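// run 5 | inverse folding | seed 20
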C-alpha cells in the first residue's frame, strides 16, 4: 500500500477517537543517545534538538532524555540540577538486580527540558559518545532508565519517541516488561530510523545461526554477553506503534534488499506503520543574511555580496583568489557512504581541463584523507583541503563561498548538508537517491525551474557530466543567479516537519488504543 494511502487510513482512524480531533497539546519524551548542544557527533543530534524545539513552539510539552556524559560538566556551559537520586534501573540479572543512577535536568531557552541519566561506570567515565565494547549495555540502560524515570511520575508522556538502534529496544521493553504497568501501558511509542546501517553491536550482514536474534525472545539481562548480539533495531521495528524514517524515498528504498540491510522483509510486513518524513532545517540558525560566521552577509536580493565569502574561503584554504573559477565543495565526514572516493576520482579528471577549484572540509576515514592529500599534491593551486573535523567558521564559509557542493552518496537516508548549502546559495549536485532525491529538484534550463543538478548511476561518468553542466551554467550569470535564488527560496523549516510528526503521534495513539498485535497494523 502506498505511503499516502496509509497516512489517509491512519488519519481516518484518528478521527474515530473523539479526544484526538484537532491538534491538542501532547506530552512527548524524546529518548536519544546524543542531542545537540550537549553531545553532537552527527546529524542525529541536530534532528532531536530542532524537532523538539519545533514541537514545543507548536504548544506541545516536549522533553528529552539522554545520558549524562562526563564531558557535560556542571557549572561550565550547562548548569544541571539533580532531580532524582538513587533511581533503581532493573538489570534482569539475579546477581546484580539493579544499577543505581541519578537524573539531572537542564531547561533550554527554547523551553525544552532535557533530563540526563547519570551513571558513573557507563557514562561519566567515558570520553566519547560511541565506540565502546559495552555500548549495547549503555543504550539498554538508557532505554530502561527512561522507563523507570517515567514510572516515578515526574513526567508521564503521551508519546515516547525513540531514535535509531540505540534506544529502539525501549519499544520492546514497553511491550514485554511493562505490559501490565498502570503508567506505561497507555503510552504510545514511535521509532525514527535515521540509518539502517547500524542495528546493534555486531555485523548484521554476517551473523551466524547461533547468534541470530529474531526479536521474539526477551531482551537479555543488561550485564550478560548475549545483549551484545541482540538486534535492537529489529526489536524496535517489531514493537513500536509507528515507524518513521527521514525521507519518503528512503522509506521506499529500505523495503528492498539493496537498502534494507537484511531487514527489508520485516519492513515489508510492517510497512503499513512506516512513514517517511524529510528532516528539516532551522532557518534562524542557518541564515546567510545574519550569520556572524560569514565574511559578508547576503540574501536573495544582495547576491553580489556573496563573492566576498568565496574570496574568504579561497584564502582560508590556501587557493588563489579567482572569481571566475567554479569552486566545488565537499563538506562532511570522510566515509564510503558519502561517495568521497567517487568525488576524488571524478575531480581528478575535472581539474585537468577546467577552470575549477576543489575544496573539502571534514574528517573521518584515514585512507580517504590520504587520497585527498594526493589530489592536493597533484593540483596544489586548484585543491584546498581540511581533512579534519571543523566546527568553527569553515563549514559556514563553505556554504556561503562555494559555488557548487557535491553529494555523490552510495545511499543517503536524508542528509542535511545539501539543505544548508541551498539555503546559502551553493548549488547541490546530488545522486538521485534517498533524502537527496526528496530535497533537490533537477534544474531545467528551459523553464528555469529546479534547485540543483542530479545524476543516477554511481560512477565517474554520471558525476562528471553534472559537474561539466554546472561549469557551463556558471558561465551564464543570469541563469546561474536564477538557479541560486530557486535554491535559497526552498522552505525546509522544521515547523512544517513538526506538523507531519503530529500526525504520526496521533496515528501511534490510535493504533496503541486499538491494541494491534505487536504493532503490526492490518489495513486490508
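// decoded
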Amino acid at each position: 500500500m502506498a505511503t499516502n494511502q496509509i497516512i489517509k487510513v491512519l488519519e481516518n482512524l484518528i478521527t474515530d477517537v473523539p479526544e484526538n480531533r484537532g491538534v491538542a497539546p501532547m506530552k512527548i519524551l524524546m529518548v536519544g543517545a546524543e542531542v545537540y548542544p550537549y553531545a553532537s557527533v552527527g546529524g542525529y543530534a541536530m534532528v532531536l534538538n530542532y524537532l523538539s524545539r519545533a514541537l514545543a513552539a507548536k504548544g506541545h510539552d516536549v522533553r528529552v532524555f539522554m545520558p549524562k556524559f562526563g564531558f557535560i560538566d556542571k557549572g561550565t556551559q550547562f548548569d544541571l540540577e539533580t532531580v532524582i537520586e538513587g533511581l533503581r534501573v532493573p538489570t534482569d540479572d539475579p546477581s546484580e538486580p539493579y544499577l543505581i543512577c541519578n537524573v539531572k535536568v537542564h531547561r533550554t531557552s527554547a523551553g525544552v527540558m532535557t533530563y540526563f541519566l547519570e551513571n558513573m561506570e557507563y557514562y561519566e567515565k567515558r570520553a566519547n559518545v560511541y565506540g565502546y565494547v559495552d555500548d549495547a549495555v549503555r543504550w539498554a540502560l538508557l532505554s530502561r532508565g527512561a522507563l523507570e524515570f517515567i514510572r516515578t511520575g515526574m513526567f508521564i508522556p503521551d508519546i515516547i519517541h525513540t531514535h535509531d538502534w540505540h534506544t529502539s529496544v525501549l519499544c520492546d521493553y514497553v511491550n514485554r516488561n511493562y505490559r501490565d504497568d498502570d503508567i506505561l501501558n497507555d503510552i504510545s511509542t514511535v521509532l525514527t530510523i535515521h540509518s539502517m546501517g547500524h542495528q546493534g553491536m555486531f555485523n548484521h550482514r554476517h551473523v551466524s545461526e547461533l547468534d541470530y536474534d529474531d526479536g521474539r525472545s526477551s531482551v537479555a539481562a543488561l550485564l550478560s554477553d548475549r545483549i551484545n548480539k541482540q538486534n535492537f533495531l529489529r526489536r524496535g521495528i517489531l514493537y513500536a506503534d509507528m515507524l518513521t524514517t527521514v525521507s519518503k524515498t528512503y522509506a521506499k528504498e529500505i523495503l528492498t534488499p539493496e537498502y534494507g540491510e537484511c531487514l527489508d522483509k520485516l519492513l515489508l510486513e510492517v510497512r503499513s506503520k512506516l512513514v517517511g518524513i524529510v528532516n528539516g532545517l532551522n532557518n534562524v540558525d542557518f541564515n546567510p543574511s545574519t550569520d556572524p560566521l560569514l565574511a559578508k552577509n547576503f540574501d536573495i536580493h544582495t547576491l553580489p555580496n556573496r563573492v566576498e565569502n568565496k574570496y574568504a574561503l579561497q584564502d582560508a584554504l590556501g587557493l588563489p583568489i579567482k572569481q571566475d573559477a567554479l569552486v566545488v565543495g565537499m563538506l562532511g565526514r570522510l566515509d564510503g557512504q558519502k561517495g568521497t572516493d567517487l568525488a576524488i576520482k571524478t575531480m581528478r579528471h575535472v581539474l585537468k581541463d577546467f577552470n575549477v577549484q576543489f575544496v573539502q572540509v571534514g574528517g573521518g576515514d584515514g585512507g580517504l584523507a590520504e587520497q585527498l592529500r594526493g589530489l592536493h599534491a597533484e593540483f596544489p593551486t586548484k585543491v584546498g583541503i581540511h581533512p579534519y573535523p571543523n566546527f568553527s567558521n569553515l563549514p559556514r564559509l563553505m556554504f556561503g563561498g562555494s559555488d557548487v557542493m557535491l553529494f555523490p552518496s552510495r545511499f543517503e537516508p536524508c542528509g542535511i548538508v545539501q539543505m544548508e548549502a541551498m539555503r546559502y546559495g551553493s548549488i547541490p549536485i546530488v545522486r538521485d537517491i534517498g533524502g537527496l532525491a526528496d530535497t533537490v529538484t533537477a534544474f531545467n534550463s528551459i523553464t528555469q525551474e529546479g534547485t540543483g543538478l542530479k545524476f543516477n548511476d554511481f560512477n565517474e561518468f554520471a558525476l562528471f557530466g553534472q559537474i561539466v553542466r554546472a561549469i557551463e551554467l556558471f558561465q551564464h550569470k543570469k541563469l546561474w543567479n536564477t538557479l541560486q535564488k530557486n535554491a535559497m527560496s526552498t522552505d525546509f523549516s522544521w515547523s512544517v516537519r513538526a506538523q507531519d510528526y503530529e500526525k504520526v503521534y496521533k496515528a501511534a495513539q490510535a493504533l496503541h488504543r486499538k491494541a494491534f498485535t505487536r504493532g503490526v497494523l492490518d489495513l486490508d
